[in-house]
Amino acid sequence: MNTDSFALRHIGPRPENISEMLQVIGVDSLDQLIYETLPDGIKLEKELDLPEALSEQEYLEHITKLAAKNKVFKTYIGLGYHNSNTPPVIQRNVLENPGWYTAYTPYQAEIAQGRLEALLNFQTMIVDLTGLELANASLLDESTAAAEAMNLLFAVRDRKQKKNKVVKFFISEEVLPQTIAVLETRANPLGIELVIGDHQEFDYSEDFFGALLQYPGASGKIYDYAGFVQKAKDAGIKIAVAADILSLVKLRAPGELGVDVVVGTTQRFGIPLGYGGPHAAFFATKEEYKRNVPGRIIGVTKDRDGNLAMRMALQTREQHIKRDRATSNICTAQVLLAVMAGMYAVYHGPKGLEYIANKVHKSTVALANSLEELGFYQLNETYFDTIRVKADVEKVKQIAEASEINFYYPDANTVAISLNETTSLTDLNNIIAVFAHVAGKESHKVTTLEKSILENISVSRDTPFLTNDVFNRYHSETELMRYIKKLERKDLSLNHSMISLGSCTMKLNAAAEMLPLSYPQWGNIHPFVPINQAQGYQEVLKRLEDQLTEITGFAATSLQPNSGAQGEYAGLMAIKAYHDSKGDTHRNICLIPSSAHGTNPASAVMAGMKVVVTKSTEKGNIDVDDLREKALKHKDNLAALMVTYPSTHGVFESEIKDITKIIHENGGKVYMDGANMNAQVGLTNPGKIGADVCHLNLHKTFAIPHGGGGPGVGPICVAKDLVPFLPSNPIIETGGTSPISAISAAPWGSSLVCLISYAYISMLGPKGLKSATEHAILNANYIKQRLNNHFKTLYSGERGRAAHEMILDLRPFKEKGIEVVDIAKRLIDYGFHSPTVSFPVAGTMMIEPTESESKAELDRFCDALNSIKEEIDAIEDQENNLLKNAPHTMEMLTMDEWNFPYTRKQAAFPLPYVSENKFWPSVKRVDDAYGDRNLMCTCDPIEEYMDSE
Ligand SMILES: *Cc1c(COP(=O)(O)O)cnc(C)c1O
């Protein structure tokens, strides 16, 4: 056995387990199982054309060599991205800690109180700094957050505006270029008309429903927007502001002016630049718009015992319920990064942030004065961290780059310089030296920082922030380390047990894949540096694109979208651009099977398409007759079909090639949702089944950790016809030859975490990838068989096999008063996170073990479910039983009184394995309805909340 092989570490079942597992399933070989699983005619004939697998050591050497090709200059480009110091205590205990990064989205609130609290801290920080009432946790980047703000303002137009079809949205020319590009992409399909200009010359016409301002402006200039906001409001125009989070420490909160939405990024709160991401964006608004907020909102509620508990609030707004009428298509957000940014605020507290903001600002004042002394004209009257000087760009650039310094050059005679938390006095003097050289003068060394220019003026902040206890308690490393640990212990992550989330593919996130994220040569690269300074990144990204292109059987890949849902949107926009290029601008019908994930219809609507739902057959497959009928009916306007393969029902439909053919014959393109790619890699591919574009969830199939609900990467891979339309970026050249405008702020989206998928593919190689898929199918079918006596699998393929996941029908247990959530909560007592609940069929669970789980873990899980079935059979009291009272907390178990019709041992240690590794839920069952009725989304003192009842 080659113990250097990464496949041996990634794949759970040991070679010696395989025959036993096959025997349980009732097949002779893995090949036989795959034959029985995959329909005829879609199997790949050849191995993937990818380099042979690297061992973990070889990969780490390889990636270290590539890292050396990135040149880490001192970068003062700004434009929404700034170097910052990641506090080592946060780097080690959150970013590098599988307890945090392998967690799932906190749907099972009872075993997610840790990250829910961390996210509540994040929301509180945003509410305090923006001066608004409500914040979410979190969005993908500042630019898409600004697009969501525009979307919200469009949706909440008053009756008169809707009647008069008011569709104009004003964007200040001081908004960041990448944000303007994303807004251009997003406005068009919704019928929003953008007008870009100088806000000081705006005419406050009633033709506008909203406006977006940048604070401070992209130039670095700070405007007092009070007058603008007042006049706009008088004209019925609603305002969104994109704000720099650190400057808000010094500046008047936009919420105080009465603006409607404030967005921005929290990257500079301790998150590495990572060549563009991932970083958490924020979105704050007024209480009255709470039902229109995109993304996740964490809210406070109580548990069965009346104890304070948190969970995701107002979920009925979201795409998984509202589908084509959802407030947004956001599913995966940036949870891990939001946790880190929130912890940065916890660590520094209000005084620490004030110190940092002052240091950055006063350094900038010192720089401005020194450059003026050298004879350079500085353009910004008021500024926080960014100045602009008139100078010969060519000269400055040459000398600066020779000194390994990057500035931003908006035109041939202007140099923009943004300072940040990491800028030292030495750095300051090095910048000054560049300009002294250009001017041919001697420079004075700066030895002390100058006075702030932001005190006692109209824009200065005079309201307190982060007054809450949590921001004033954990300022020593010991205290913060323990606080982080305290929260971590409340959360069940992959380092405790299997998280078998159907459709979400929670597989191993290997340490070797994660290690390089901490290298400064990957972390400290600004997304807008000249390409020749990012050669390491360019190589990795290009190779990853090629790997994904090969895996999908397509022609090209764009890594720009920051989540699966963004990928869907990007892919549909590429389809739309293709139709437009053929003069078929009217093609706008998108067929979507009823079983599709909620993001599909939500994305189609964002792309300006009309959703037509097609039926499923009794067996859970696409009803091909219905599909054909609808494709024919809409043939003149058919734009696309969105199809998940294998289906969300966990089945490889044998008719898939007929389905794609029908769509093509009627002029449409086929969008394949790639969330289930884990069942395909190396065995078949979207190109083979006849699709034209798919997104891949790199945070599912390709090993990027779920992070508790993000980050994600949702690249799109496209067939030849769609290559010209891949998305661009306004600052760095990327994308197709007739590209759609930007989908995300950064040219290659969340580049830093692309390293993980690159590692995954490089270390598995063509054989390992295929083997991983086969073992994913093996594990799923093993579970299916082991649960067979007690649970009915809803759908199977033609030869009786599941693909990589299966749906268990739990509706029969209603007879005993048991709902699917009762089983989900009871699994917690057994130490397991529930599988996916009620998607895609209500009253069911969808189980996806992935290839990474060992036979021993699968057995524990099956033992748990089978044991729960026996508990259900034994139920006598439908209200008071092991399932209805689950999960059982330690507090409950150790009460002096015990009035339940079962023993304490049955409650907490129902099977022998549980006592070896008990996971205690920190709260009892959480009351969702109560929390939605009494929405509360900041961490104000508990008493205040309970008093307000
Ligand atoms: C996860 C998933 C998505 C959405 O991906 P995000 O990255 O969460 O936006 C879309 N479709 C299916 C079937 C999924 O499982």
From TrEMBL:
<dbReference type="InterPro" id="IPR015424">
    <property type="entry name" value="PyrdxlP-dep_Trfase"/>
</dbReference>
<comment type="function">
    <text>The glycine cleavage system catalyzes the degradation of glycine. The P protein binds the alpha-amino group of glycine through its pyridoxal phosphate cofactor; CO(2) is released and the remaining methylamine moiety is then transferred to the lipoamide cofactor of the H protein.</text>
</comment>
<feature type="domain" description="Glycine dehydrogenase C-terminal">
    <location>
        <begin position="772"/>
        <end position="888"/>
    </location>
</feature>
<dbReference type="InterPro" id="IPR003437">
    <property type="entry name" value="GcvP"/>
</dbReference>
<dbReference type="InterPro" id="IPR015422">
    <property type="entry name" value="PyrdxlP-dep_Trfase_small"/>
</dbReference>
<keyword id="KW-0560">Oxidoreductase</keyword>
<dbReference type="InterPro" id="IPR049315">
    <property type="entry name" value="GDC-P_N"/>
</dbReference>
<dbReference type="InterPro" id="IPR020581">
    <property type="entry name" value="GDC_P"/>
</dbReference>
<dbReference type="InterPro" id="IPR015421">
    <property type="entry name" value="PyrdxlP-dep_Trfase_major"/>
</dbReference>
<dbReference type="Pfam" id="PF02347">
    <property type="entry name" value="GDC-P"/>
</dbReference>
<keyword id="KW-0663">Pyridoxal phosphate</keyword>
<dbReference type="Pfam" id="PF21478">
    <property type="entry name" value="GcvP2_C"/>
</dbReference>
<feature type="modified residue" description="N6-(pyridoxal phosphate)lysine">
    <location>
        <position position="700"/>
    </location>
</feature>
<protein>
    <recommendedName>
        <fullName>Glycine dehydrogenase (decarboxylating)</fullName>
        <ecNumber>1.4.4.2</ecNumber>
    </recommendedName>
</protein>
<feature type="coiled-coil region">
    <location>
        <begin position="858"/>
        <end position="885"/>
    </location>
</feature>
<dbReference type="InterPro" id="IPR049316">
    <property type="entry name" value="GDC-P_C"/>
</dbReference>
<feature type="domain" description="Glycine cleavage system P-protein N-terminal">
    <location>
        <begin position="9"/>
        <end position="435"/>
    </location>
</feature>
<feature type="domain" description="Glycine cleavage system P-protein N-terminal">
    <location>
        <begin position="468"/>
        <end position="727"/>
    </location>
</feature>
<keyword id="KW-0175">Coiled coil</keyword>
<dbReference type="GO" id="GO:0004375">
    <property type="term" value="F:glycine dehydrogenase (decarboxylating) activity"/>
</dbReference>
<comment type="subunit">
    <text>The glycine cleavage system is composed of four proteins: P, T, L and H.</text>
</comment>
<comment type="similarity">
    <text>Belongs to the GcvP family.</text>
</comment>
